[in-house]
Design brief:
This protein is α+β, with helices and mostly antiparallel strands and 209 residues long. It contains five helices and nine strands; from the N terminus they run E-E-H-E-E-E-E-H-E-E-H-E-H-H.
């Protein structure tokens, strides 16, 4: 497949994060959306002339190895640097006391966005916080996660916060719905939640500590 990576100006780039595009037709290519040709063009064709925009961010290193960094509509942009949520989540999830996590972009007046982290702690981790000792344990884990992210990604990408929750909102096929987490954090309308598997997870995010 004639795959490439473009920057915001539509220029082919390497050793930097950009938008995945495909320059020639391929066998599995979508030919349109049912009764909605305008949305099809807007989704795939209107960003750059004559190339298919796939909706993912990626990078190619000096050896030609490709790194897929997640959906471009999920990407967090901190002071001009693009960051895939999966990059942060992989670091956080490697901690022994973490089951899973979700990294989302949260507004910042200067940087544009910062990283916000919602973390589901291990089953053996004390929950809910019901004593001073539990609070100390949570604060210690929070400090560990800050340090882990900074060690891998650098101090400028230190999360704005780490909050602990019982569960993350997911679709029926187990995809984390980051947009709902962002909407709850920013106190915005949630929009369509028909694909949400468990509505109780929304309250879990609201109750995150």
């Amino acid at each position: 497949m004639a795959t490439d990576i473009l920057n915001e100006n539509g220029e082919s780039i390497r050793e930097a994060v950009g938008e995945v595009v495909i320059r020639k037709p391929w066998i599995g290519m979508t030919r349109g959306f049912w009764k909605d040709p305008d949305r099809y063009l807007e989704s795939y064709w209107n960003r750059f002339p004559d190339v298919w925009v796939h909706g993912d961010f990626a990078a190619v290193d000096k050896d030609g190895c490709w790194f897929i960094l997640g959906r471009s509509d999920d990407t967090i942009k901190v002071a001009g640097k693009r960051l895939g949520p999966a990059e942060v989540e992989a670091i956080v999830n490697a901690h022994d006391a973490v089951i899973e996590s979700a990294a989302v972009g949260v507004p910042h007046p200067v940087k544009g966005q910062e990283v916000g982290l919602f973390v589901v702690p291990d089953d053996h981790f004390p929950w809910p916080v019901s004593s001073e000792n539990h609070a100390e344990s949570i604060n210690a884990l929070r400090a560990d996660l800050y340090e882990a992210v900074m060690a891998e990604l650098g101090k400028p990408l230190k999360p704005a916060f780490v909050r602990f929750t019982k569960a993350l909102p997911k679709t029926r096929n187990a995809k984390v719905m980051r947009r709902l987490i962002q909407a709850i954090y920013e106190d915005r309308d949630l929009g369509d939640i028909s694909s949400l598997e468990n509505p109780a997870t929304l309250e879990a995010i609201r109750d995150a500590i």
